[in-house]
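Hypothesis: this fold can be encoded by more than one sequence.
Test: take the structure tokens below, design a sequence, compare later.
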């Protein structure tokens, strides 16, 4: 194996397996940037992390300093380069986000010029000496001194397809509500880096020229998750509160004239087409301009200061594209691989004492008559078939086509008349108030947006209808820990690769980080369900024996009744 070489940038030298803090001297000695390099003992990719391109965006700067202190060099495979403050002069002189020497926005002058103004020379040096050695690039930002924003991430969108795909995958690791595909090639250091073939993102968190420990911790955690995703940091990804939804068609509205700005909304708020977003007034209180939404979407950031400048930024918002969520494809792929074994297990379950136990638990909540029932996330059809045998009219839905195929096969084998349809639990294709009962088993823990799913289930319920969910707080348990499971248990036959995939998917789902079933009760209460029944002991009654059906995670029954 070829011997790993030292990292060298001028006189800044770091041996393999070492971390070094100091100063990068670039641009023929003109610029001295506080930096750190973690040069892993093992070979791998080089990731460049920068902060302080805008000197008053402090969350990124503080996060970069914390990353330099807390990343473990023994877990690095490759090299992590951290530039803690790029626009150092403006930062130390507290002169705002524009460069002190020439008043230019550093993020708008890339690739710069060797013989240009101060900011152009700095941009040129960064391109030639830092971007040129990077395989991936992460730029850390926050709101300027006059900007309020909701956390989100940009990824480079104007570049080679491979670069765009890799950039988007990096953005997906950030624990923020939204991600935006940039539609320019030169506006920003990260966009220019992408044009050089470097997958790149820009993280926005923090606002109004301030920072908090929580914000810097969150950004640090985002970067660590991205490094894990890239294989540069040998560790487990953290659970997240969000998975970024794609935001398209971002509208950056500017003021037509200078005045006093009075917003009607906050960053993160959902807006409708034509809705008033704010007004600009003069000193006499007369309205000079009304800012209205050109289309519906979410507000990413807006001016937070009282004054706005002519042609200056006022507000930015964009459309949410739920169709771009790739997690569902991954989830469906995972369950496709399990569909055959799932069918075998559920068939055995239908002909065991488990079927009678489940029926006993379900019938506690059902009215004594024939019902129209929706089994959401039916898997291979256990509940659908079980309840159809009781004379109910049952439809089973599942996101995974292979599961629906196995459900139909099993229903035919069981000689039961019931229907199955491929359908997303978060976007049901049924009319309002269609069902007497919506039932689900072990589904909500697998959903990217469980709150939206609950909204849909509530919508299709008739007045007085019953919502019945059997689930568990699976996010709090490690599926790879099988030491206390019986030898014939499913998790002992799946193989570690499948179990690790299960864990990886869970960490992309916000619900894995919720306290359940408290979160479920709160969410359904906001929808209007006021009558609840909660049973935390159902698992002990169902899973009496430690056999192949055994579930070691405590399941709960949550029953809610829609108001009549």
């Amino acid at each position: 194996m070829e011997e790993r070489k030292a990292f060298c940038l001028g006189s800044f030298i770091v041996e393999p397996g070492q971390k070094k803090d100091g100063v990068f001297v670039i641009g023929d000695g003109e610029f001295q940037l506080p930096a750190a390099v973690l040069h892993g003992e093992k070979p791998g990719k080089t990731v460049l992390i920068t902060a302080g391109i805008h000197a008053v965006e402090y969350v990124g700067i503080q996060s970069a300093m914390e990353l330099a202190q807390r990343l473990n060099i023994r877990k690095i495979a490759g090299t992590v380069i951290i530039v803690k403050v790029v626009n150092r002069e403006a930062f130390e002189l507290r002169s705002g986000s524009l460069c002190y020497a020439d008043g230019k926005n550093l993020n708008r002058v890339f690739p710069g010029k060797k013989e240009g103004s101060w900011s152009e020379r700095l941009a040129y040096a960064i391109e030639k000496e830092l971007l040129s050695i990077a395989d991936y690039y992460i730029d850390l930002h926050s709101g300027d001194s006059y900007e309020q924003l909701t956390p989100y991430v940009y990824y480079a969108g104007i570049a080679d397809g491979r670069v765009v795909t890799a950039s988007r995958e990096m953005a997906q690791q950030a624990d923020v509500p939204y991600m935006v595909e940039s539609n320019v090639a030169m506006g920003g250091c990260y966009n220019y880096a992408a044009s050089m073939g470097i997958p790149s993102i820009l993280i926005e968190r923090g606002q109004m020229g301030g920072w908090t420990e929580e914000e810097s911790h969150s950004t640090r955690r985002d970067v660590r998750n991205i490094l894990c995703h890239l294989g540069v940091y040998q560790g487990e990804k953290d659970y997240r509160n969000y998975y970024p939804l794609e935001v398209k068609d971002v509208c950056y509205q500017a003021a037509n004239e200078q005045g006093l700005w009075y917003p009607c909304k906050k960053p993160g708020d959902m807006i409708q087409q034509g809705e008033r977003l704010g007004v600009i007034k003069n000193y006499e209180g007369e309205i000079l301009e009304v800012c209205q939404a050109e289309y519906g979407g979410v507000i990413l950031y807006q001016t937070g200061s009282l004054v706005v400048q002519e042609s200056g930024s006022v507000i930015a918002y964009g459309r949410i594209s739920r169709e771009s969520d790739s997690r569902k494809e991954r989830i469906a792929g995972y369950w496709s691989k399990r569909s055959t074994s799932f069918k075998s297990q559920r068939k055995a379950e239908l002909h065991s004492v488990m079927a009678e136990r489940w029926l006993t638990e379900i019938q506690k909540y059902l009215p004594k008559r024939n019902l129209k029932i929706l089994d959401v996330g039916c898997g291979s059809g256990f509940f659908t078939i079980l309840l159809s045998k009781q004379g109910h009219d049952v439809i089973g839905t599942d996101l995974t086509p292979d599961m629906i195929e196995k459900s139909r096969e099993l229903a035919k084998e069981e000689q039961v008349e019931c229907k199955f349809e491929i359908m997303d639990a978060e976007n049901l294709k049924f009319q309002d108030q269609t069902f007497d009962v919506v039932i689900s088993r072990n589904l909500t823990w697998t959903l990217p947006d469980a709150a939206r799913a609950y909204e849909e289930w509530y919508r299709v319920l008739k007045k007085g209808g019953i919502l019945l969910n059997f689930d568990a707080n699976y996010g709090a348990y490690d599926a790879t820990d099988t030491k206390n499971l019986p030898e014939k248990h499913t998790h002992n036959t799946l193989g570690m690769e499948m179990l690790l995939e299960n864990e990886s998917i869970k960490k992309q789902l916000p619900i894995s980080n919720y306290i359940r079933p408290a979160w479920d009760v709160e969410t359904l209460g906001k929808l209007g369900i006021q009558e609840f029944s909660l049973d935390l002991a159902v698992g002990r009654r169902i899973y009496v024996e430690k056999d192949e059906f055994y579930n070691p995670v405590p399941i709960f029954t949550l029953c809610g009744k829609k108001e009549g």
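The mean pLDDT is 93. The longest strand covers residues 461-472.
Hypothesis status: open.
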